[in-house]
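Researcher: Here's the sequence for the chain we discussed earlier.
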Amino acid sequence: MAVVIVYIVFLPIQSLWTQGSSEDLILALVNESRYFIEWTVPDMVKADDIDRACELVDLVRLLTRWLFHWDDIWTDAEQKQSASAQISYWLQRVLEISRTEPESLSA
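Model: Thanks. This is the structure I predict for it:
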């Protein structure tokens, strides 16, 4: 259920990004997505859903890199296009994660 919340929070980023919407709004959603993932991952680890939790940690790492290089990404068309492709990939992946059952490593 918590992964669904991550998807719901992450979804507007793609929509706003492709529309070229407010930089400040997208930046706020990137931060909020990080917080929701950080809130979700510990429960996944407790449920022995390590592989999927690691994937979400990779997403947080990507979002954090974006924050450190935000001005470059936002002003460079090539980097912005690359980020848009990454958003599309991760949105699909988070949806897939939310639809699958956890696989316990102890099974």
